[in-house]
Amino acid sequence: MILSFHPIITADENRLCAGRLPDAADAAAIRRAAAVILPQGCGPELYRLARENGPHLFPNLDVRFDHPGKRGQIALFRQLGIPHPPTRLYGSVAAFRQDGDAIPLPAVIKLDWGGEGRTVFKIDDQQGLAKVLAHLRACEGTGQRGFLLQPYLPHRQRCLRVTVIGHRLVAYWRIQPQPDRFGTSLAQGARIDGAADPHLQAAGVAVVRDFCRRTGLQLAGCDLIFAEHNLAAGRVAPLMLEINYFFGRTGLGGSEAYYQMLAEAVDHWLAEMGLRRRLSGTMN
């Protein structure tokens, strides 16, 4: 029996866990299943239950829950030797103050959470640093703690997004057309380009494919940059910025195209195990 907790992917048995914690009936269904399909927004309780009781899961999100937050991702990059910008990790503003080292500017501060560039700040001067630190202290007052600091690396105002959907990797650039604006998310006005510099795209895809091979990651949007100083020296050296477990679909052709790719990825995954999804290729 194939069990799906995904609201779109149809299987032999279908359950929804949105808005509630998993219960004994969910656990029993997982134990009966030969394979379990999880939603993209799977919470830690459902994932741990499925990991402990299910023989095969899609997607594999071990890295998401074993290395949570942006700081956890940097720790994982260090562990695996994945090239990334030089990074300092801080659990609090107080820890940052205790560090005492001079900060070369410009720099980038990323909060441990958030998406679409809303919790990423470019620091150009001491006044800007003070403003961001005040914001971080306010966040700590609500229980949200932790951030990382990186030097700002000029990267031609663009970021390569490599979306992982099973074995399929889809790459495209997100380009910020305004030279005085920081951030390359679509929410910040970036545009999509899937054709530029295919050799750089191929290098980024190779880094992500190797990362997936080593971690088992099956569903995510990975962001990479190519620092200008490396390109000027003739070095094709993609640097991994972060992993996004919730990602936009515009660059994939929209939601319908994404769900079709997801259904195909699930079917391919099941076929590799000698299983077949009932109503294969269909979506609710």
From TrEMBL:
Domain ATP-grasp span(s) in chain numbering: 74-271
One GO CC annotation: cytoplasm
An example Gene Ontology biological process: SOS response
Annotated SUPFAM superfamilies: Glutathione synthetase ATP-binding domain-like (SSF56059)
GO MF assignments: ATP binding; metal ion binding; ribosomal S6-glutamic acid ligase activity
UniProt entry tagged with the keyword ATP-binding: yes
UniProt KW Nucleotide-binding keyword: yes
Coiled coil: none
InterPro entries per record: ATP-grasp, ATP-grasp_RimK-type, ATP_grasp_subdomain_1
UniProt keyword terms in alphabetical order: ATP-binding, Nucleotide-binding
Protein name in UniProt: Glutathione synthase
